[in-house]
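Interim report, section 4.2 (structural modelling).
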Amino acid sequence: MSRRNHLERHYTKWGYIFVIPFVVVFLIFSFWPMASTIYYAFCYLKHAGNTNPELLTTIGKPWYQNFKEVFTAKSFWDAFKNTIVFFLASTIPEWLLAFWLAAMMTDRRMKIKGRFLWKTAFFFPKLVAGSTLGYAVLDQIISVVFQGSGYTMAALMMNGFGFKEKDLEFLTSVQFVIILATIFMHFGITFIYAVAGITGIPVEVFEAAEIDGANRAQTFFKVTLPSMRPMLFFITVVSVVDGIGMYDIPSLFGPFDTFRRNLTLMMYMEKQAFSGSYAYDRASAASLVLLAIYILMSGIIYFLFLRDKDEARLKKLNREKERELARSI
Amino acid sequence: MSNNELTLSEDKKRTIALKITTYVVSILLTIMILTPLYYMLKQTFGEEVKLVHGAGDNTQLVITPREHMITLKEFGKLFTKADFIGFRNSMLVTCTSTLLNMYFSALTAYAITAYEWKLRAAFEKFIIVAMMIPSTVASIGFVQMCYKYHLINNLAMLIIPALATPMTVFFIRMYLKATFSREIVESARIDGAGEFRIFNQIMLPLMKPAIATQTIFCFVASWTDEWVPRIILIDNSKNIKTLPLTGSIQGAGLLMLLPPIILYAFLSKHIVEGIALGSVKA
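Predicted structure of the assembly:
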């Protein structure tokens, strides 16, 4: 045993060697830009191609100048609101749809055929995403939405449920189209990962649940979801990263929209930094807001998935015991 | 007994109802998803479909017939046109960045799994933190770095950063956690294989499902990425353009579909399935 340990120790240096490329590239291309972005948020750095940041305090301005400019701009708050609304309104239905379909298609008793074909079909929008087909997908969705909502509107108003045209206007709005398009573009990914997670659970677990008389909903929430925790964590992170950083689809409506209905935080950042006065400093301040949102979301995800509740309780108990021991001595 | 039978048959009924619902929903979704392809073909070879943004909440679909249809011969010409450079650049960027991403992510994940180095747990935590904060947040710093060291308009800036993608590392690590066997490594060592050789020739093939899954997603993400090219490739000369930026060349849209679809056709059967990822907590 000790010989084996010795051998293991002999090889540990390879662990360090193998992560060197990753660490070096990460430090240069992710960590350093991150650190400098934080620094620029407290600097004066405007005009295209300017690479000479001056700390705001050294040129006689308050250190929070950039944040003030960002927080007092109405367009920022529009972007902030849009980002949160788009994220929630697209992720929640997307998850419901993807997980429902994944649960149905992996159900042992239902034996749905052609899971591979469905996977391909659902992933298709993402597979062919890009400017031209992006438009085509949008076209399709818009036409369906317009027709569908037109009929719905007419029917609802004729029946006199008390709906006015104004109440239903959102059905034809840019925001609604963006949300629907995002759901369509993204739910294939969630579906594929969810299927991978569910099929990874040993069959015996489901058999045991069946014998215990659990119905489908109970099995899904009490057995399936807790058993695929690592995958669930991964799916959540993918959804959050893609959802908050939403850029491609809203920007399809891009410069045409003067009402800022499609403006997201990423687009706001781009607008500040790469047009007009090329305010890299203000864009950096906006990036920090994005960063704060990501950190907040990570915290929530951490408490939902990664924190081992039993372990935390054990640690707390141990600490109390130690304290008692110390007190008794 | 009869009571039991009754509930059984009711259960069966419910199963059939659910089955039908699932099929109907799936088929409707598939129709919704696949009709754009029809529009796409029509757009490439026939009419022009455009979104027109009017005042207020008016977004209209305008379909106008092209002056002449693009023929297959013209479609073939795309490959010789100067615009083709966008396609070539996109291929170059996407393929190399995906390859780098996969190889080094696998290497990093393997390093976390196979060796018991001191900072291992800390490094794994760092990966998890890093994957939750995407590099797009640091875009300004990234662009400023490119300005400073004259790396703007350089395709390498789209490729090299892909080498360190925490998301891929985490996914492969999750897969390795479930499938890694130390015995294989040990017996290879006894046979005299070096550590690099063990990784390249034995472990890398074993990680195929995880790598194939991530290859598809990363290839598509890189192929359709608009953000980084938009901020890095600002020169208007054609030789640095990548595909999402090369506007509306007739047929380019169709050309653009092909690489991801071909890749998917080859790799999709390897997508992770049926392997317990991570530990199942009782």
